[in-house]
Amino acid sequence: STAMRLAALLAALRPVLPLVLGLSLGCSLSLLRASWSQSGGEEQCSGPPGRAGPLAGGARPEEADGGPGPGYEDFRPRIVPYYRDPNKPYKKVLRTRYIQTELGFHERLFVAVLTSKATLNTLAVAVNKTVAHHFPRLLYFTGLRSAKVPHGMVLVAHGDERPIWLMYETMHYIHQHFGSDYDWFYIMQDDTYAQAEQVKALVTHLSINQDVYLGRAEEFIGGDEQARYCHGGFGYLISRSLLLKLHPHLDSCRNEILSVRPDEWLGRCIIDFLGITCVSQLQGQHYHTYELAKNTEPEKEEEEEFQAALSVHPVSDMTLMYRLHKRFSRIQLDRAYQEIQDLQMQIRNLTSLTPAGEAGLTWPVGINAPFHPKSRFEVISWDYFTEQHLFSCPDGSPKCELSGASKADVSEIIDSALEQLNRRYQPLLRFSKRQLLNGYRRFDPTRGMEYTLDLLLEAVTQKGHSHVLAKRVSLVRPLSKVEIIPMPYVTEATRVQLVLPLTVQDLDFVANFLDMFAMNTLDTHDNALLTLLFIYHPYDAQRVSQVDVFAGVKAMVGELEKRYAEVKIPWISVKTEVPSQVKLMDIVSKKHPVDTLFFLASVWTEINTEFLNRCRMNTISNWQVFFPVHFQEFNPVLVYRGEQAASSGTDFLRDGHFDRRSFAEACFYNSDYMTARTKLAADILDQDEVLESMEVFDVFLHYSGLHLFRAVEPGLVQKYALRSCNPRLSEELYHRCVLSNLEGLASRSHLAMALFEQEQANST
Fold first, then answer.
1. DSSP 8-class letter at 520
2. Which of 10, 298, 566, 628 has its CA 20 to 30 A from that of 237?
């Protein structure tokens, strides 16, 4: 019986036996490894008793035991505890403008260019035109007094042209104004050509936890053999930590160190007071430079040292600077093309291993596949064109002349197609264009602009025989790297001045507008004001003393002012037969300060805080105006046909459409409107007739250089209402109003169902 019990126990333990053996083996090995670590820890490796000389490494490395250096604490995140003194009244915390300021982030690179009186308008301008737009922040420093600054340059004039004094003042200025904002500081001369992208890539691979003095290391004349300074002609890189440590010693260096060259003076100052020498290699990164010889031809330079250089010196004139920029741009472009070819080859090799196989390979290789529509409403249409005409015009006309950017685009695409054909078939065939038979293009938001060309070509063989043939080619202009456009800073604290034009036809909707305004702005204490614009017909204006058509609205305003004692809602009365939007804004503009932010609303607009904040953020003085596209709900009679409407939470922005034909709502600053209006007045003689055919949108579009931000706005939802279209306005405005009413009735499916039900009712 004992044997049977043992056998049964072993049978029960057999499934977990491997687990038990694995745990036992793991515990044994871990104990054995712990004993080895303890025995090995008794002997510690110690470095030399004396501290290594500061000139050996060129920068302050991490500690010898592998731990962080003494400045590591500056980069370790710390949690600042919140403490509130109970004896002091509560005060609202003032938040910083940007989150990176609150978190203590620094910008990466600051560039300083040293220039002089002789080269400010020549070499410095060449530097500004070639590389300045590649750097995030670049300033020019000179010793001139009240120097005339060339266009597009930021110049700091110290008032003393002595080289050492200029270097001293420059370092002091950089520390005072930018020392706490940037991690790296690159100092160069205006006779230096620097590859901006390579310099930016260099600092991304360097650790900020070191005192860095990096450049082309040069020996001092008659000085210490180990000491090196960075040659100023080739530029040099200084870390923020080094700048902070150097600043207290600048005055001593100015008084104690004698030197002719400013770069030697700075190098000697850093060595004497900080013990750091210039290095050309750090953390596996090399600072490659190239010294130009006299009469150098940049186009013929093929040396590897030249192509790898981050900076080139000396550059003697502006033309040479531009030629260097062209040559290095071509080198970078060739490298990019070669890298693209290598990546495409890798994609081809890997595609065969995927489940889809070769069929999953898209064209062009590495570019997103074309957009596949899920319904006929998502199909992206092709635009037809020839070399002279475009058959899909912006104004809606069926045919227009090909000009401007579109003409340049078509010419470039045809030239590119010929270049690709000749590159593929030469030397067997050489192609030349006879005629563009057909051209098609469309913009695919997933990949870029697509082209299909039917070309009539003349093909010439090596023996000189020619033949005319038609060939179809397809091309893609892919979307490139997304560029973030810098925008001026705006806040949500700006006061918004609402302007509401009212006619007699709008009286039925005023009560709802005022209720929404009171609930969403007055009750929430939003920084918004309202001005009403009463538009009287001449007949109603004559009888205003007997019967005021806007008396009911004025009574509602009085009730609001009684309910909210601190609120005043002014109104302006206007008499006109043609309520032109521009003429009305002219009256309102004169009665408000130039810095007023206007929101031109309609009586169907339902004001809410969410939209008002977007109005503030999207409208930038002297930069951008905002024309939102409101969401127009469909006619509930046609949409629901007697059924109860679904809840707004589930059908939000569904039973309606964004009315792109309406330009009634607008956000803009009074100063921008006045500037554009002045240009309009100077350009047009017979203003009355022209103003009746224009809206505020047209004024900004044709007579201002501002950005017009036109976007759908989900925060502006309008209930269905049949708008009254004034036939006294221009034909275009009247036609647009009628189309807006028709398109706002219902969707195609709803209209089809209504017609179907009507046909059924008529048949019975």
1. I
2. 298
